[in-house]
Amino acid sequence: MKMIIDTDPGIDDAMAIAYAVAAPEIELLALTTVFGNTFVGQSSRNARYLLDRLGVDVPVAQGAALPYGASDYQPSAYVHGLEGYGDMMDIPEVGRNHALPAAEYLVEMAQAHKGELVVCAIGPLTNIADALRLDPAFGRNLKQLVIMGGAVYCPGNITDAAEANIYHDARAADEVFATEMETVLVGLDVTLQTLYTPQDFEALAGASVDMGGFLRDISQFYLKFYKEAAGLEGCGLHDSTAVIACAHRHLFDLAEVGVSVALEGPELGATRTDAARPKIKVCRGIDHAAVVGLFSDHVARLP
Ligand code: BDR
Ligand code: CA
């Protein structure tokens, strides 16, 4: 499966990218980056560093720095650390970004791989909305768009009502959900069931010394956040669950519903079912043991 991951690395983003590189069913063509867990320049730097450490030479195209119509964006340093990889500081600058901005790059790649390309969006949806604005055929040219975002049947995480990726650019997300295309939404409804524990990280680091060790180390900050904020002994494999949903749909129970996003007020960023919207596939159930097992099995094979 040909895939581009649109990402804001980010600790669980790094895990998802490592999974995509390790999984034999995925051919990772590129990463596109967006603001979110960190500022976009740092997202790109983190993405290039990770790819280099994984020994993978694919482009990184940098995208949106800010959400639509809002200037008060702040990175989630309290969740992902000051530079996005937990306690790691001064992440080395490796290589350079692709010459094209993310949205243009996505449009070109969707045309070049018409009907074959899966875009897995694991950050705010600004680049995806930008690509749809640039080329109304963008959505139809994709095989599918799989999104980590939203909380349709459960409470949010960044606020009681909203999940972080949707909250960071509610307007862009609403535009994406208004578009007729093959969309799968992998939200907190299922990703909070894929808890990855400190013991899971230790086992991973034992099997995959470099990458597993790196993911274990950067995740200490993230695990601490989960424990302090939610009393959980593990962190959600949010972004990896979305990447896994791209090729393992049978592990998910899907509802076909329309979705819209609250654009203001205390509910800002809430994802609600909306009968007036095109139907998308919303994950509402998951074989969580199988998803966690797939993640461990594949990433454990990395050096
Ligand atoms: C999502 O928000 C970010 O913090 C994570 O990387 C993930 O994409 C979870 O709500
Ligand atoms: Ca993310």
Q: What's the number of domains?
A: 1
Number of helices: 13
Distance between the termini: 23 Å
Determine the fraction of residues in helical runs and give it as a percent range: 40-55%
The global form is: globular
State the CATH architecture: Alpha-Beta Complex
Which regions are unreliable across 5 or more consecutive residues at pLDDT < 50?
none
Element pattern in H and E: EHEHEHHEHHEHHEHEHHEHEEEEH
Bound molecules: beta-D-ribofuranose, calcium ion
Total strands: 12
Query: CATH class, please?
Result: Alpha Beta
State the CATH superfamily name.
Answer: Ribonucleoside hydrolase-like
The major pleated sheet works out as: 8 strands, mixed
- Average pLDDT, rounded to a whole number, is 97
- Which fold name corresponds to the CATH topology? Inosine-uridine Nucleoside N-ribohydrolase, Chain A
Classify the secondary structure makeup into a structural class. Answer: alpha/beta
Strand order of the largest sheet: 3-2-1-4-5-6-12-9
Keywords: Glycosidase, Hydrolase
GO molecular function, one term: purine nucleosidase activity
Domain Inosine/uridine-preferring nucleoside hydrolase: 3-291
GO cellular component, one term: cytosol
